[in-house]
Amino acid sequence: MAGRTRELCLLLLLGPCLGQQAALSPPCESEIYCHGELLHQVQMAKLYQDDKHFVDMPLTKAPGQVLQSFQELAKAHNLSIPRQQLQTFIQEHFQAPGQELQPWTPADWVDSPPILQKISDAKLRAWAGQLHQLWKKLGKKMKPEVLTHPDQFSLIYSQHPFIVPGGRFVEFYYWDSYWVLEGLLLSEMRETVKGMLQNFLELVKTYGHVPNGGRVYYLQRSQPPLLALMMDRYVAHTNDTAFLREHVGTLALELDFWAEKRNISLSSGGKTYVLNRYYVPYGGPRPEAYSKDAELAATLPEGARDALWAELKAGAESGWDFSSRWFVGGANPDSLSSIRTSKLVPVDLNAFLCQAEELMSNFYSRLGNDSQATKYRDMRTRRLAALNAILWDEEKGAWFDYDLENGKKNQEFYPSNLAPLWAGCFSDPAVVDKALKYLEDNKILSYTHGIPASLRNTGQQWDFPNAWAPLQDLVIRGLAKSPSPRTQEVAFQLAQNWIRTNFDVYSQNSAMYEKYNISSGGRPGGGGEYEVQEGFGWTNGVVLMLLDRYGDRLRSGTRAALLEPPCLAAALLPGLLLSLLSR
C-alpha cells in the first residue's frame, strides 16, 4: 500500500481524534488531587521542589470544607493569592506526605534465604544479603483512616501491605512490582507476594485495570501489563492453584481493558491486524508534574495543549517517561513537546500482551477450561502473526515500534526491540541469534556498564546514557533462550557487566538506584523530571534474579573475568569451542 493511502486507512481506523477524546470525564473526580483551581494555584506557585509532594499530602478535614475555605481565600484575593497566604492555607489544611503510611516489616522475611548459598563470590553473597535486608526498609502498610476517610487521601486504599520502589515513590507501581515480586520470591517471601497480587486484583475489580500506581491521580492510565506474569511466577513458586482459580477471571478482565481501550487496527499485505498501543484520552496536566506540563504546553497554541497532555500521560503509561522513543517523527525530535506516544505501536507492549495471552491459555488448561484455553491460544497466534507482519524486520534481526502516522518502523535502537525474545513470543529459534547480531551491529556490546535505554542523549531519563534494570533483564533473558553457547555466553557477560555496575556503586554509596549512568564508569543515573531515587525495588529484584541464574560464575572484582570489549571474543571462545566439539 502506498504511504499516503496507508496513512489515510490508519487514520480512519484510529477513530475519534485525541483532541476530541481529551474532553472525556476523567476517572478521578477529586477537585484537589486531580484537577481544579486549588491544584492549579498550588502547583503553579511551586511551593515545593517536586510537584508530587503536594498531591501526596493528606487532608486534615473533609475535601468539601477544604474547598470552601479555599474558595473564600481565592475570592478575597481575586484569585491572586499571595504566596505566603497560600503556604499558610496548605499548612492548616494538609499533612506532610507519607502520613497515611507506616513502616512494615514483612512477617515472612527470613534471615538467610537459600539463594545466598548459590552465590560463589563471597562479596556478592554478602551484598545479596544486604539487598535482602532492604525489603524490610521498603515495606509499607496503610493506616486504617485511608479506608475510613478515603476522600481525604490521594492514596488508593489497599488491604495488604506491600513493597515500594523507594525514594519519592512511597506507593506501589504497576510494572515495577513485577521485578520486585521476582526478587521477593527468591527471598522466599511468598505471603508478601500474594498480598501484593491481591491488591492489584482488587484494583482491576474496582477500576477495570491496574492504575499506573497506587494514587487516585494515576487512575487515568495503566502501565505495562504484567499482572498475568506476576500470577504465573507466584503459582510456579507456590503451586497455589486455588488462588489462580479464584482470580483467573479478574486476570481476563484486565486483558479486556487492553483489548477494548488500547487496541489499534492496521493493514499489511491485504490483511488487517489488531495490535495495541499506549493511549490515554484525557487532557489536563499530570497532577504529579502539573507545573512542568503546564509550562511545556504554554509553548504550543492553546488548541494543541490537551493533545500534548494526553500524549504525556500515554508516555507515563508506557513506563518510559520520557524517551526519544516517543518523539520520533515530531517537529523537534529532541524536545518533549514533540511527544506522540499514542501514534506508535510499541514492540514491548505487544510482547507483554502476547506473553499474557499464552499464560492465560496455560492457566485455563490447568484449570480444565478448554474453551477459554483455546480462545487465548488463538489470540496469541493472531498477535504473533501481527508482530511478524508489522513489527519484525528480517534484515535487521529485530522488531521495531511502528509509526502509525508515517506508515513505517522506527529503526532507532531500544532494548525494547528485543522484548519478544524475553516474552517467548517468536516461532523461529534462529531469531535469538539474529538478535545478537543486531546488538553487535549497533555496538551495544561495547558498553561495559550496562545496556543503554537508547543511543540518543536528549536529557530524558529513558535515553542515553541511562541504563535501567528491567531493560537489562529483557535483553539478558531473551538472549539466554538461544540454544547457541555463544549467544548464551553474551547473555552471561551482559549480566556480569550489570552486576559489576550495581555492586561498584553500592560499594561507594551504600545505596541501590532506579537507574544508572553507564558513561565514564558506572554511577547513579540522571535526567528527566526529578533527581535519581534510591531504594530501589526493581533494581534489587533484577540483581537477585541474575545472582540466582549465574551465582556460581559472577564475580565482584575487576579480574580477567570482567572483560572490556576487545576481550569479548576471548570470552566467547569457550562457548564457540564447545559448539564445534558438539557437532
Going across the biggest sheet, name each strand in turn: 1-2-3
- According to CATH, the fold-level topology of the largest domain is Glycosyltransferase
What is the helix fraction of residues, given as a range?
Answer: 40-55%
Q: Strand fraction band?
A: 5-15%
Q: Report the major sheet.
A: 3 strands, antiparallel
By DSSP (H or I, 4+ residues per run), the number of helices equals 22
Class from helix and strand fractions:
mainly alpha
Q: Count of DSSP E strands?
A: 13
Shape: globular
Q: Give the CATH class of the largest domain.
A: Mainly Alpha
**What is the terminal-to-terminal distance?**
45 Å
Mean pLDDT: 92
Low-confidence stretches: 1-25, 559-583
Number of separate structural domains: 2
What is the radius of gyration?
24 Å
Going by CATH, the architecture of the largest domain would be Alpha/alpha barrel
In short:
The chain is mainly α. The chain has 22 helices and 13 strands. It has two domains: 31-99, no CATH class; 103-279 and 343-581, Alpha/alpha barrel (Glycosyltransferase).
